[in-house]
Amino acid sequence: MEGNQNRIQSIDAIRGFALLGILVVNVLAFHSPHFMYGGLDSFYQSPTDSALLTLIGIFFQASFYPLFSLLFGVGIYIMYERLTEKVSGQAKSVLRRRMFVLGAIGLAHGIFIWYGDILLMYSIVGLLTIWLIEKPVRSLLKWAAWMLGSVTAFMTLMNYATREFLADYRDEESIGQSFALYTGTYTDIFERNVADWLVMFNPLQVVLMILTILPMFLVGVVLVKMGWVTNPKEHIQSIKRWIVISLVVFGLFKIGPYLTGDPVWLDYVKQGIGGSFSSLFYFLILLVIFSYGRGIVIQSILAPVGKLSLTNYLLQSLIGFVFFYGVGFNFYGQLNIIDLMVYVVIVYSVQVGLSIWYLKVFQYGPFEWVYRTLTYGKVQRLKRRS
């Protein structure tokens, strides 16, 4: 029981770490429209901004949504195993219902709060994962490699063919509309947010995201099936070997492009290959550290945040909504990278403190409680037993 509890704490801690990385990246998208419409240099102009953006690009950008995807795959398979023991043939039905509930939460989040929502996409990918979940490890790895390799190759060729256009891309009209509406009333914000959400969820983008995210879901399933998550000490040599391999690929495909001037046509190589392997490296190195009882203080800080991952993810969006948009403090496009990183430290620190305090009284976060209640069709006990 103690080993199982330690495993759960380790996964929660890694999930808490992923939420920190997601906040670092998402705050840039909340602050300005450059991710979607270009013009990065006009928003962040100082040498310090440039240096920090490079560090974020190497260690954070496109590394943490794959890490969260991997963790989702781990969670889905662990839940599948538990449900199979309890309800046998109904396991997949419960998991599908869980994905539909998650999709509804993500749809509401994406339309009414922030267009950058990832939960709806995770629910779609989760349904595909459930369909593939019983396939053997070798088949899952082939599926993952084929999808990730094909989408990366296709997009890299497309980006190379249009590299001159991409290098100078800047949609002035959309940038102007973003500033005019995100700094206005909620009606203005809603109008622009829906427009951006529709851009994010156009059919081509959805297919590309599925082919990028599903491989990491499947890798998460594979890691549980191989016993690396449940019994990491028994597989420590294999895990260490893959820590080295993932670090090397991380360096070549995520850091390497920056040594050649960071051409824009290599973005999908950085994101697809570099980002996926950097997320695998983060997961495995932290799994080993936490499983051997090292970094216990860090684990105790990160685990409560990860246990309330859904609530904390949505809370990050609500705070960003109030801080950056016109209905609140209206800092949209007004800050530099140092300011934004100070914001990240403050918001995440508050989440750490609130999570630790909250879990002393309650066993689920408010959104986790809704998630579980709707999944099982039964009101869940929220408060801890005294």
Automatic annotation (TrEMBL):
Domain DUF418: 223-378
Keyword Phosphoprotein: no
Keywords: Membrane, Transmembrane, Transmembrane helix
InterPro entries attached to this UniProt entry: Bact_Transport_Assoc, DUF418
Membrane-crossing segments per the record: 12-31, 51-80, 100-131, 143-161, 206-229, 241-259, 280-301, 313-333, 340-359
Name listed for the protein in its UniProt record: DUF418 domain-containing protein
Organism of derivation: Alkalibacillus filiformis
Taxonomic lineage: Bacteria, Bacillati, Bacillota, Bacilli, Bacillales
